[in-house]
Amino acid sequence: QVQLQESGPGLVRPSETLSLTCTVSGASISSYYWHWIRQPPGKGLEWLGRMFIRGTTDYNTSLKSRVTMSVDTSKNQFSLKVESMTAADTALYFCARGGYTGYDLDYWGRGTLVTVSS
Amino acid sequence: QSVLTQPPSVSGAPGQGVTISCTGSSSNIGAGYAVHWYQHLPATAPKLLIYGNNNRPSGVPDRFSGSKSGTSAFLAITGLQADDEADYYCQSYDNSLSAWVFGGGTELTVL
After folding, report:
1. How does DSSP assign A5-64, residue by residue?
2. B80-108 pLDDT tens trace
3. Separation in Å, CA of B35 to nearest CA in chain A
């Protein structure tokens, strides 16, 4: 059974960098694409980017150069960093696995709420 | 503002059916990219309901079906049950944004 679990700080100060980790069980981190998605309070879902073990990354250009994704194969984890956080980055952050078609997302975590506030 | 447009809410009585629409444009659904649908209950992991326009992952009841026409896609749910109450999201790929894009979500209420 594939499971994903997000972890990280619930509170980030403005201008700081957010670091989140997604721990994967039931699947090898080396064999799939892995995505990050977020949902601001009361709003829809926003795709942040995806990565593959061999270093391939695709980021949402709306976040410009603030996003970085990486993988730790020894822990079967992948990570997200978002620089220069503002209140607009307050959201529920999800990790997910790229699925059957290459464009769907077949397994998701429950999400972790990140609030940006001083 | 979401790239794909969904109605904010739909409702239906137990046993009845509802259809949720998802409208895109020529750079996503209209460009031939498949539409996928997700069911999300609060504090749970979103669940893939339909992939590739009209395919159900193992374990998803055949009460859920998807279709696509032009720049729109549709999720049909028949035989509504109380535990179908959830938020439903459509998703596709947009080649002008080079990004995975979502609808704003539709809240289903079973009356």
Report:
1. EEE--SEE-TTS-EEEEEEEESS-GGGS-EEEEEE-TTS--EEEEEE-TTS-EEE-GGGT
2. 999 999 999 999 999 999 999 999 999 99
3. 8
Of all residues in chain B, the percent with pLDDT exceeding 70 is 100
**Closest-CA residue in chain B for A99?**
B51
Of A25, A8, A27, the residue nearest A17 (C-alpha): A8
Q: How confident is the model at residue A55 (pLDDT cuts 50, 70, 90)?
A: confident
> Which residues in A lie closer than 8 A to residue B34 (C-beta atoms)?
101, 103-104
DSSP helix/strand/coil, A75: coil
**Which single residue is written with the structure tokens 């259809």?**
B19
Q: How many CB pairs under 8 A join A and B?
A: 74
